[in-house]
Design a protein that fits this description.
By secondary structure, the protein is of the alpha+beta class. The protein has one domain: BolA-like (GMP Synthetase, Chain A, domain 3, 2-Layer Sandwich), CATH 3.30.300. It has four helices and three strands; from the N terminus they run αββααβα. Strands 1-2-3 form a three-stranded mixed sheet. The protein starts with a helix and ends in a 17-residue tail after the last helix. 17% of the residues are buried.
């Protein structure tokens, strides 16, 4: 079985033919066991996003990653752009984890 990050990268490459694809495992920033693959930050630049609102872009990514979202992946931080938008884009740093285990 492929690592989750490798499968995410392969699925996004296949479906979006991206000009830029960055998949970062940010699980270490959260309250999960070491070496987890549960939280990812994805920067995806594709012509497929032309004319689509941000919500539509995110829905398209989630549709491709249905299997991962039903299994090991808990959260995705999605940053989706067209190649034209990418020229002036700034991808924000992810915020620190606030926990999730309650107080």
């Amino acid at each position: 079985m492929k690592p989750v990050q490798t499968q995410i990268e392969a699925d996004l490459q296949q479906h979006f033919a991206p000009a830029v694809l960055q998949v970062e495992n940010e699980s270490h920033m959260h309250s999960v066991p070491p070496n987890s693959e549960t939280h990812f930050k994805i920067t995806l630049v594709s012509e497929a996003f032309a004319g689509k609102r941000p919500v539509q872009r995110h829905q398209a990514v989630y549709a491709v990653l249905t299997e991962q979202m039903a299994g090991p992946v808990h959260a995705l931080a999605l940053h989706t752009f067209t190649p034209e938008e990418w020229q002036n884009a700034q991808v924000p740093d992810s915020p620190n984890c606030l926990g999730g285990g309650g107080k």
